[in-house]
Amino acid sequence: MADTMKALVYRGPEKIALEDVAVPKIIEPDDAIVKVTTSTICGTDIHIWHGGMPEVEPGRIIGHEFVGEVVEVGPAVRNAKVGDKVAVSCVTQCGECFYCVRGIYSHCTTGSWIFGYMIDGCQAEYVRVPHANLGLFGIPEGLTEEDVLFVGDILSTGYFGAENAKIEPGDAVAVMGCGPVGMCAMTTARLWGPSKIIAVDINQERLDFAVKTGLADVSVNPLKVENVGDAIREMTEGRGADRTIEANGFKATFDMAIDAVRPGGNVSLIGVFEKPQELAMNTLWIKNINISMGLVNANRIPELIKLIQAGKINTNFLCTHHAPLNDILTGYDVFGGKKDGCLKWIVTPYLK
User: Fold this and answer.
1) Is the Cβ–Cβ distance between 216 and 175 less than 8 Å?
2) What is the Cα–Cα distance from 299 to 294, expressed in whole angstroms?
3) Number of C-beta neighbours around residue 328 at 10 A
4) At a CB cut-off of 8 Å and minimum separation 6, what does 201 contact?
5) What DSSP character marks residue 351?
6) What is residue 1's predicted lDDT score, i.e. its pLDDT?
7) Which H or E run includes 301?
8) Are residues 15 and 133 in the same domain?
9) Domain final position from 246, 277, 293
10) Between the N and C ends of the chain, which has fewer C-beta atoms within 10 Å?
């Protein structure tokens, strides 16, 4: 390896640049160094770019959704070796701390979601992976990198949202937000056998795509109905959705998810919120609903890979745009601006 590499560096709100930086080195005994062979731009990266996460320090390399090849391992790494092709969890976990032993891996005291946030991330040629024993997952023979590219973040997040919604066979499930995370929530919600999946978004092109591809059964565009909750109640014998999943992180979709769920139903929040939200407890206290939220634990990656192998899940439709790391600034503009029908911008290795 050379001493320097190309990486996308955050320099403050609205300021990102492709720069030459030092190649990462092993710091802890259970670290691994991974050569990034395929990565993506995620919605959270867009939040960071626009300054929505002020805790991210200037100089940070962004990115947390990727696959690659192990090129170096620390002396305590036993579950991966040099040359392994791996999918990587966006959540690093030690497996031993207070939270990890309770299964709350997203709050690991020496890990959690830190790539591209608290430590340097994957929109680079190489990345250091802490706690590699629990964060690297071999790519099975017969699967491509793109087949498993999203298991480490958005597919896990979509599954987490559907799992927390506690979907039962025959349920009506409404997903507020038809972006990549929302589509992953719809994809995984199917595993529980709902009778109807309702996609909600103001982007009609994405709604049409979701219905055409079978991700959703029907769609609701808030710009075309007077009230989303009422529209969903009309589809569900006046009750409302049994489960709603909020996958956007905005006030409008938050309010819709709360309003559209039936009494006794479940609301699952997986969107990334930049601003406080309000709950009208004066009307909600009597509705007997459950609201869950949180950062994905990313503890279902092995199961998701098996489901992909079995043909039960396929997320390749998300890979609409491909370009090398050289063009990542264009990717931020296109993906961040929802231009050109972009669902996910796939970053391939830097071309020298």
Assistant:
1) yes
2) 14
3) 27
4) 176, 177, 178, 179, 182, 207, 219, 221, 222
5) P
6) 78
7) helix 301-309
8) yes
9) 293
10) C
* Closest among 204, 170, 176 to 190, alpha carbons compared: 170
pLDDT at 94: 97
Q: Are residues 302 and 286 in the same domain?
A: no
**Does residue 138 share a domain with residue 48?**
yes
Same-domain check for residues 218 and 255: yes
> Both tokens of residue 81?
């070796």
Q: State whether 15 and 98 are in the same domain.
A: yes
Main-chain dihedrals φ then ψ at residue 296, nearest 5 degrees: -55, 140
The 3-state secondary structure of 256-298, one letter per residue = HHHHHEEEEEEEEECCCCCCCCCCCHHHHCCCCCEEEECCCCC
The SS3 of residue 303 is helix
User: Considering its fold, how many domains does the chain have in total?
Assistant: 2
The whole model's pTM is what? 0.96
Distance separating the N- and C-terminal Cα atoms of the chain:
14
Give the residue carrying structure tokens 């009307």.
Answer: 283
- The span from the CA of 270 to the CA of 202, in Å, is 18
How many whole angstroms separate alpha carbon 92 and alpha carbon 176? 28
274, 293, 312 - which closes a domain: 293
- Could you give the angle at which helices 251-260 and 228-235 cross, rounded to 10 degrees? 30
Burial group, residue 184, by CB count within 10 angstroms (0-12, 13-18, 19+): buried
User: Residue 234 has what pLDDT?
Assistant: 98
Chain Cα centroid distance, residue 212: 23
Looking up residue 206, the CATH number of its domain turns out to be: 3.40.50.720
Q: Name residues of the chain where pLDDT drops below 70.
A: none
Contact (Cβ atoms closer than 8 angstroms) between residue 64 and residue 113: yes
**47, 4, 324, 120 alpha-carbon torsion, rounded to 10°:** -20
One domain for residues 141 and 93: yes
- CATH number, domain of 9, equals 3.90.180.10
Domain that holds residue 219: 155-293
Average pLDDT, the chain: 97
Q: For residue range 244-299, what is the model confidence (pLDDT) as tens digits?
A: 999 999 999 999 999 999 999 999 999 999 899 999 999 999 999 999 999 999 99
Q: Are residues 339 and 253 in the same domain?
A: no
